[in-house]
Amino acid sequence: MKNLDPKRARWIRIRMGILCGMMGLGLGVIVSGAHRIQVEDGEDWYDLAERQRQRRLHVTPKRGTIYDRNGASLAESVEVPSISLDAVELLRGIEERYLPMRIQQYGERIAQALNMPAEDVVEKISRRRRFVWLKRRVSEAEVAAVRALGDKKQRYPVRGLQIEGEGHRFYPNRELGGPLIGFVSPDGEGREGLELALDHELRGKSSEVRGLRDRSGRLIFSEGIEDEAALAGHNVYLTIDKGIQFTVERELDSAMKTYEATGGAVVVADPSNGEILAMASAPGYNPNDYSVSDPDARRNRCIVDRFEPGSTIKVFSIGTALAARSVNPTASIYCEEGNMAIDNVVIHDTHPAKWLTVTQILSLSSNIGTAKIAFGLGEQRLYEGFRRFGFGDTTGIPLPGESMGVLRPRGRPWVSVETAAASFGQGISVTTLQLTMAMAAIANGGKLLEPVLVKRVTDGGGTVLTETQPRVRREAIQAATAKLMSEMLVAVTEGDGTGVEAAIPGFRVAGKTGTAQKIDPATGRYTDTHYVASFVGFVPADKPRLVISVVLDEPLGGTYGGGSVAAPVFRRIGEMALRYLGVTPRGSVPMKLSEVSDRAKVGDPATSTYQVLTEARSAAAPITAGVVTPSAPMKSGETRVPDLTGQPVREAIRAATAAGLAPAAFGTGRLARVEPPAGTVLPKGAAVKLFFEPSS
Fold it and tell me: Which keywords does the record carry (predicted)?
């Protein structure tokens, strides 16, 4: 620089200064950019890099299984194949100008393999997404066709198709307990019944799998599932007994067909702990094919449908009055010879009488007698008594859509005629489950229990997470009053009671019939053509094991009374259930339960059990009240009751009349029993009762 011209040297220094300045400025820009990228926006760039490097898969756990009380599966999840598509992988490497043609070609090939419309497949490919369902729950033939499409030996193999294992809800017993159990939608969510109510327990918690992926986005290394417990939801054990449920649904369906009823409901419970052993609703449906079922058939009528209870509510009207000591158990009440006017309404009795005891009021189902007892009790105390028995409130059962029923539809205290009507079951509404739990309070000594449907919940390893214990909601009546009511209710099923069709040979049955008129929506008045027939009771009366409620909506076929329609269903269910539980009638030989177990190993367990119990019932020695003397000589003017078992109504009546007897027919179907029994010697012209039952 010393040898240079001063002007030139100065210019060089200026240029070097400018160059250094520019370099410094550029370095500043680089450092500033690096600071922004690594410090200010560092987290965002890190997340982007992780998303590009890693692949995250959400793992949906296997849905838990629903079992009955004995461990028999009622609802379970099985893995079925479904087909998904990675459209990015399918179209990778194809030039943009050829994409429309290739998309159309691939769409047609895939559509043919999966039996789908080609336009639907083309539309899904055109979205160019990493994951999209093509078809869920495919057949084995479709799986084979998809595998053939991906064969690399072809000139143009179809890439990006994945055969995914997907959980599918399966109900092995088909229609058994359909309205109770509910169903699961394709997205894995419970929609109705227990599947909806227990969805949180059954679904479990979803987990996430992370791993590295290649440039095509395929998972090449997995870190594993973080929580092994998330692989399966919790298993639920119900108090339902599959064998009893099977019997209940068979008998209910038979009664529905025989009497052409529009609907029906049956609940069977253990009165000692409130456990629900069976809950049937008809018509039902198959949860495996819920999409083709009638929405009305998916309704659980036991908890959703409200109905006027009719005479069954008299149990609780009279029970409340006895507990309040407003009526003496031995008192006789004048029943106005069948007609009594209250304000501008006349109350009638089906069996007109002058004086009746409280027990006779129950056994003959006197509306007038019950109304007078209610007047002595008072409107407020009658209402409070109904509330203590659980009416007008939910029962607490873990099922969606439970109705509370209605006690005061107008939202005010009852006037006189409304008090009378409520006492014998008009102007109020209840559910079948409410009726069952209220009768269970009579059977167990006065304690109103909360119904138990879920016995316990376990995790995938069998560890018990929760277990339900019996819970007493309140004391409905005193134990002594409950015992007194039990004895009174036995009179309903004996002698001249309205519920003799519910009598089970060898057992004392306590119960009450109900025949309630329905209101015509068009006129707002009670109709003479549509009824609700019901029977609720427990057996054995001295040591109750079962409480059974039977409700049939709008029975036809020439009869509609609770005593002739619902009571026989109660008897058949009670007979089967008692033998199934090992409770044998007096004078019979106990059936070996090992026989039931051995037979149940072959074929469907419920069907095998039902057949064994039917055979045992037929083989058991009958318990009869009369003296059968088939070989006793007959005197002049006497005749012998013929054996007409199994004959239809017309033939049985004709044969009994030809034998010189005066037959009275009860029920429909074929002859089940005669009172007095066959072989009994009677004076000619004597009355005999012929009891018919529909074929099961």
Answer: Carboxypeptidase, Hydrolase, Membrane, Protease, Transmembrane, Transmembrane helix
